[in-house]
Amino acid sequence: MPRLAIGPEFPRELSALAQPVRRDAVVALRRFLLNVAGAPHPQRVRGCRDPRVATLRLAEGHRGVVVRQREVYWLRTVLPDPEAWSYARRFRFGVNPVIGVVEEWDAEALERVEPALRRSARSSGLFDPICDGDLMGLGLDVHALPLFRLITTEADVAALEPLLPPTQHVPLAVLARGGTLAEAWRELDAWRASDEETGPIDPEDLHAALRRSPDRAAFVADKVELDRVLGAPAWCTFLDPPQHRLARAARFEQPVLVVGGAGTGKTVVALQRAAHLAAHGSGPVLLVTFSQALAEDLSAKLDLLIEDEVVRKRVEVGNTERLALRIVADAEGRRPALVGPGARTLAQLTDEALRLLSLATGGLLDDVDPGRKPYRHIVVDEAQDISPSQWRLLRAAVPRARDDLFVVGDPHQRITDTRVALGAVGIPAAQHTLRRSYRLSQELLSFVVRLRGGGPASGLVKGTTNMYGFHSTRNGDRPVVRAYETPESELAGLRSTVESWLADGVPADEIAVGARSPRLVRDARRALEGLDVRASTFQHLKGLEFERVALIGVAEGVVPEPPPEEPDARARALQRERSILFVACTRARAMLYISHSGRGSPFLSL
Q: Where is the signal peptide (predicted)?
């Protein structure tokens, strides 16, 4: 029976096909898995650069391109026949000899580039001081070494990036900017999906390489698994190696902190870790986020991610305020009042919940009787905006044992005045960093980093966190900043912009409009009457993402709001205002539109 692995591009390309073609392709793949009569069979490709590449006829006029090794088939794409043949001839595939992941090379384009590199080559190459043995020790392909020896500038390395597997480009880029062999090795090693991989690497074993490459392949054994991979959002199935290593680790002996910029997949890692702990942990799991609205969004995502109802019920999703309210309500027999006579603040309720929880556990050492705690595992999203007292409550709600706390956040997206180092509240976390943004284009990323200020922010562990090495995986449109004479003309421009987006075919639920104040949000809603798009304050866009985002009223005196006079308070307030605007800007996947009437915000003077 064939063993079929689905590549990440295939479900997306399949969904873009006409419904009859899509239906026929799925039926063909089901037959292929069963190896029955009428199933598509592999057809060799003349003139291909990799003899393992073949095509499968999946529907009238459409073919899938597979990389085949014995009974293993890696399904890369589905295209109209002429394009499928062209794709099959263009690429070659391999296995990194050092870390064992699959690699895809744009062989046709590299053949065109090589003469240009030869013409521009100088007397000495950029990597001449490094011997072949050291380069191969970094996993660089022995057959590509002559090409790499032609490189003379860091710009050459950057130009080759789209044509090379990332596991080939990353060590070259480190060396090109003057990094050491040890630094290049650390960057390459980050592409392992597991820290537990042992044994020799066989560069000829495609099956093992695909197993080591969760971002590039998902094996399906039957119709149920096939339908799940084809129908689920990509984040449910395909994790890049750093994400996979964190989310699916067998165990962590101490609390874990994962930091990363916008779009690096922190929330995906939190969801996947919660699902992993529900399936393989030793007790109930609490997934915590910033607000109840975000909690509802995460709960819906977990419903997609966890198919087993029994496992799904092991994960509770909420926020710290809800946890505190429930603990106090259970002890007092009624829900505590938050308004009116006798009302307590959320901070007071958090302190009371911590006191009650300490009494309930009897003051026992956590590892003596961990079953006295309400949860065995806690996963925290949007950690940068959780207060010290809330952290103490979370610490008390879970035993001090392995896999107790898994925390994700980004200090640069802090929208409150919270400053806390986890070690100070009894959480000695080991920090890990995600640096690749999958949501933001490089153009948008460069814009928002300048807007936010790329300097360090107070971290969640002792010291600061900076944006060094934060980069995107793709290019896109530059953000649009538009000035208007009057608020009325700005709102008219907003409506015209949103109407044009809808006319482009962007779904209404993939468009968001943001403003700094509730008054401006109300103005936006009136201007957009009849257009079913979301309008929220900047803060209420936190944790969400959309195809296109429009931010209005980004004007002097509005963004930032007038800060206090006291110097320290003023500095903190201005940085918080930058962070709030930064958060709103980074909700956009494809296009960001910013407008103001009168003088623009000083934050826009990039």
A: none
